[in-house]
Amino acid sequence: MIFDRVKPLDAILATAEKKPLTRTLGAFQLTMLGVGAVIGTGIFVLTAEAAQKAGPGMMISFIIAGFVCAVAALCYAEMASMVPVSGSAYTYSYAVMGELLAWMVGWALILEYAVAAGAVSVGWSGYMIGILENALHINIPDALVLGPYDGGIINLPAMVIAGLVTWLLVIGTKESAMINAILVMIKIAALTLFVVLALPVMQMQNFEPFAPLGMAGISAAAASIFFAYVGFDAVSTAAEETKNPQRNMPIGLIGSLAICTIFYILVAAGVIGSVGAQPITDAAGNAFAAGSLELSQACAAMGDNAVVCSKEALAWTLRNIGWTQVGNLVGLAATIALPSVILMMMFGQTRIFFVMSRDGLLPAIFSRTHARYHTPHVITMITGVFVALFAAFFPVGKLADISNSGTLFAFLMVSIAVLVLRRTDPNRVRPFRTPLVNVIAPVSVAGCAYLFWSLSVDTKLMFVGWAVVGLIVYFGYSRRRSHVGLGHIEVHEDDSDAPPPPVPPVPSFKS
């Protein structure tokens, strides 16, 4: 039952083979593509979260998360080069391991995209409120800009930005590649400015103790920081457009992740060395759980005078080392750039739903397009409602961890799929082959499992609950209506009936 109903790979590839893409990308272009796609939201909004979990040891956490991402990327790249069609890990799993596991992957991707969009919305809210209060001196009640876990009632700005992005997706507003490129440069320039100003005022005593919560804290921070790296699939899925992919794909993947890891370590060092990043503890010396109401209350009692209390860690750091206006500029950069991240995450979610609906696993109304705008308006609005609710009531760290649980599960399944397909279909053309696959793929599986296990108990229980709900939906509805189960093998991947994307095929800026 688990491995039945495999969607024929030849059917999936039939149309893709009719529209080959020109191979124009070299190693440098791929590396820059990866840097632009990876650097973004995570480093802006999760630095405080990582500091509360690991203290200065979060620098090691960045290295661990980057390594796991690298080996997962090499596996992802082989599948992406073989199956260059819509649907991402869901489609790969359908072609290799059958409908049930594909369904579970698609169900998990809801956590990757929709919940992550909520996390970015909360991150955007923190920086936007920081600008209003510090640059414009407009005081807004905490009850209206913080969720219950942070001591407020509802995060209205996060809801508003999620609603605005939903509206943009419904009407099909397009961004240009130039605008996206400008947003990437804004983010990179802001982080570079932060490093240049923060590193010179480092004090080595701020790095002691380096790992106040031990390896467990470093592992927990790595599991959260994984969110800061997701986006490398922009490189992996470019295999069909890459010159000499067997040489250039590893260079692009590993090179971009190495550059981003170094960048992240420098930013982390700037925060730790300049203002300190020790976790806040109770009277017994136990650290408060990141994203908890107890931590929020402790922060309020000490006047939010610690980076782990900040909702805009990088801007807060700059203001506290004497660069008030530059801190405001960094906050403004994040405020300008992050909405495009929300848009791309929500678009990714609607496309996964769209493909699953066309396969019969979700109701047909989910793939219905608007008569005027030609966008999947029904599922876009449903997704938008849930993203807004996530953003309104949950803190960024919890949302990022939940998102990571779905992402790690999907990457683990893709790594397994690479091994399975090497054995079941060894002669199929692979534009890119994962090097040392019998080593890399198991390491990827182990790394994803390790980071998943390092997530909080609440997050793991929530993922299990979500998976149980998914199984109920599958056996209660989807299995009986599956096109593959009914014998309807259709080639959907030409996207002839798919809604036009809101942006050209450029980096997704997910993280």
TrEMBL record:
One GO cellular component term: membrane
Pfam families reported for this sequence: AA_permease_2
Stretches with biased composition (Pro residues): 498-511
GO MF, one annotated term: amino acid transmembrane transporter activity
Positions of the UniProt region annotated as Disordered: 491-511
Ranges that cross the membrane: 27-48, 60-83, 152-170, 177-198, 210-230, 251-272, 326-348, 378-396, 402-422, 434-453, 459-477
InterPro entries: AA/rel_permease1
Membrane disposition: Multi-pass membrane protein
Location within or outside the cell: Membrane
Location (main, coarse): membrane
Protein name (record): Amino acid permease
Organism lineage string: Bacteria, Pseudomonadati, Pseudomonadota, Alphaproteobacteria, Sphingomonadales
